User: Which sequence fits this backbone?
C-alpha cells in the first residue's frame, strides 16, 4: 500500500448469503486494484493463474449491478422516514440495472452471471404484497396510472 501511496486497509470478507457484503468487498478491492493484482500475481507466478484486466472488468460490472442492490437495501432500512411507497420503484431500478447491464455486456460470463442474479431476485420479488401497491398509489409521484405502468414493465 505504501508503494502505491494508499493507506493500509482490511478488506471485508464476503458473506455468500448477502449481496451487500459482496458489493462492499468489490468496492474496496477495486480501489486497491493495483496492490491486489501485484500481490496476487507475484504469489502465483509459478502456476500462471494471474489476475488480468478482464477479471477486473468483470468485477466492475458485478460491482455496478450490486451497487443498485446496496442503494435499495439502504432505502428499505430507513427507520425514521416512510419508505414503503418506494419498494416497487427500487425493485424496478434493480431489474432495469440487470437488463441494461446484460444488453451493454454481451459476453457469455456476464450473461450467465446476470441470469443467475435475475433468477434469485425473482424467487423473492415476483409477487408484491398489496400494501406496497397501496403505498405506491398514495404516493403523489406514482398514483394508480403510474403503478399500472410500473408493474406492467416489471412483469415483462
Assistant:
Amino acid at each position: 500500500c505504501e508503494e502505491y501511496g494508499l493507506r493500509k486497509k482490511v478488506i471485508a470478507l464476503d458473506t455468500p448469503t448477502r449481496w451487500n457484503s459482496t458489493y462492499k468487498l468489490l468496492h474496496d478491492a477495486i480501489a486497491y486494484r493495483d496492490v491486489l493484482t501485484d500481490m496476487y500475481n507475484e504469489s502465483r507466478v509459478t502456476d500462471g493463474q494471474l489476475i488480468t484486466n478482464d477479471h477486473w472488468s468483470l468485477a466492475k460490472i458485478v460491482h455496478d449491478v450490486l451497487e443498485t442492490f446496496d442503494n435499495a437495501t439502504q432505502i428499505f432500512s430507513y427507520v425514521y422516514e416512510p419508505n414503503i411507497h418506494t419498494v416497487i420503484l427500487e425493485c424496478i431500478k434493480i431489474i432495469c440495472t440487470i437488463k441494461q447491464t446484460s444488453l451493454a455486456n454481451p459476453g457469455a460470463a456476464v450473461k450467465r452471471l446476470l441470469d443467475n442474479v435475475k433468477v434469485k431476485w425473482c424467487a423473492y420479488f415476483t409477487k408484491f404484497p398489496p400494501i406496497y401497491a397501496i403505498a405506491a398509489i398514495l404516493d403523489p409521484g406514482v398514483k394508480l396510472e403510474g403503478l399500472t405502468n410500473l408493474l406492467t414493465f416489471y412483469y415483462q
In short: Helices lie at 19-31, 33-43, 53-76, 87-104, 108-124, 130-138, 143-154. The radius of gyration is 19 Å.
